[in-house]
Amino acid sequence: MGYEKVEFEDVPDVYVINTCSVTENADKKCKSLVSKALRVNPEAFIAIIGCYAQLKPQEIAAIPGVDLVLGAAEKFNLPTYIADLKKNSETEIHACEIRDVEQFVPSYSKDDRTRTFFKVQDGCDYSCAFCTIPLARGKSRSETVEKTIEAARKIIKESSPSEIVLTGVNTGDFGRYNGESFFDLVKELDTLDGVSRFRISSIEPNLLTDEIIAFCAQSQKFVPHFHVPLQSGSNRILRLMRRRYQRELYTQRVESILHFMPDACIGVDVIVGFPGETREDFLETYQYLNELPISYLHVFTYSERDNTFAISMEGVVDQKERAERSKMLRILSEKKKRAFYNQHIGKSYPVLWEAEKTEDQMFGFTSNYIKVKTMWNPDLINQIRIAEVTSIDEDGIAAVKLLPKTTDQNLVKA
Fold first, then answer.
1. Distance CA 357, CA 334 (A)
2. For residue 233, how far is the Cα from the chain centroid?
């Protein structure tokens, strides 16, 4: 339609701000970005889409300078709502009830030189006490395996990425209403030519089956890296959170991953400061994670969200205490990550090299998600080369020694 994507500071005619609403900071960031956009171009047409737009369209409409707010379904038709480039005298809102949203189209990031993010599922049927996602994204939905594979082939043809990362709101729930499963999709993706790697971005422990783990272990395309949300190491808190498992199941999943893939990287989501979490509950989580052979943590500090079950729960944790618990787990994460990296010194892995550059160095990731660096060489960008991990620097990045290309053909995926 004649639009061209430009940089934020290049005085755009239209800004489209895609919002999250998982934490309070996401809402604040939206307001900050609107102000920043208007400083660049006071006459810019500003459209807000995403979860915050679906949950609180009236609140967004009250932000000075916002011209258009589109909900979860309407965002896909953004161009039709922009009649001209003139700012509206009043903010327009187009957002249907989230329960009425059934549309799903497999989508993917473009213009990534090494890695494409491929969204294969949206929405969530779970009712975790802390989460607004079902209210913002609607029920779980996905396309058929056949149509998803068609989209994957299109990605490969258009972008030729070395790695495709599978994403979704509840990725492992793929196919439920089509009589199919995420495992069905994994098996079909594994047969595709033209892409070297698939990585699963995140999958619930109750949906990560042993058959998925075992299949990925023998696959030449699916890498040995799993990110599995935990949220708490206390069974009492897991019940309060309305999670669909207890920590014993989580332990089994970790053990299964490492049984099939001893060098696998395992990431963990954890929430601190959930209502009712006592100091003893937190220390139980800390000790559990400290003893669990995982590789890193994504730590989230609980924040109150409207229209969630947790907001009315007793036992509110003081903000200072939440921050202290978060700090303790972030330090633990750094220790876990460094220990994981140190385990692999002297071992060799396929590395996908990226365009990121700092001074005379470039960076990449091994198949099992170790961030590595070497001297800048533009010929390496988007290439997968075997490299030996030699040391870990003070910033927690691994130095490597590139092995001869002839070695690449003789080493399979770790």
1. 23
2. 21
d(CA 234, CA 360): 46
Rounded to whole angstroms, the Cα distance separating 287 from 293 reads 12
H helix or E strand, kind and range, residue 281: helix 279-291
In 169-317, the DSSP E strands lie at: 197-200, 225-231, 265-272, 296-301
**In angstroms, rounded to a whole number, what is the distance separating the alpha carbons of residues 199 and 365?**
12
Query: What residues does CATH 2.40.50.140 cover in the chain?
Result: 348-408
Classify burial at 85, counting beta carbons within 10 Å of its beta carbon; exposed 0-12, middle 13-18, buried 19 or more.
Answer: exposed
d(C-alpha 371, C-alpha 333), whole Å: 15
Reported CATH class of domain 348-408:
mainly beta
Give CATH 3.80.30.20 domain extents, the chain: 101-342
CB neighbour burial string for 227-236, b if at least 16 within 10 angstroms, e if fewer: bbbbbbbbee
The domain 101-342 belongs to what CATH superfamily? tm_1862 like domain (3.80.30.20)
Q: For the whole model, what pTM was predicted?
A: 0.88
Q: What is the CA radius of gyration of the chain?
A: 22
Do the Cβ atoms of 209 and 166 come closer than 8 Å? no
Per-residue model confidence as pLDDT tens for the chain (414 residues): 888 999 999 999 999 999 887 666 767 888 899 999 999 999 999 999 988 888 888 988 999 999 999 988 888 889 889 878 888 889 999 987 777 777 788 888 877 778 999 999 999 999 999 998 888 888 999 999 999 999 999 999 988 899 999 999 999 999 999 999 999 999 999 999 999 999 999 999 999 999 999 999 999 999 999 999 999 999 999 999 999 999 999 999 999 999 999 999 999 999 999 999 999 999 999 999 999 999 999 999 999 988 899 999 999 999 999 999 999 999 999 999 999 999 999 999 999 999 888 889 999 999 999 999 999 999 999 999 999 999 999 989 999 999 987 655 445 444
What whole-number distance in Å separates Cα of residue 360 and Cα of residue 370?
A: 20
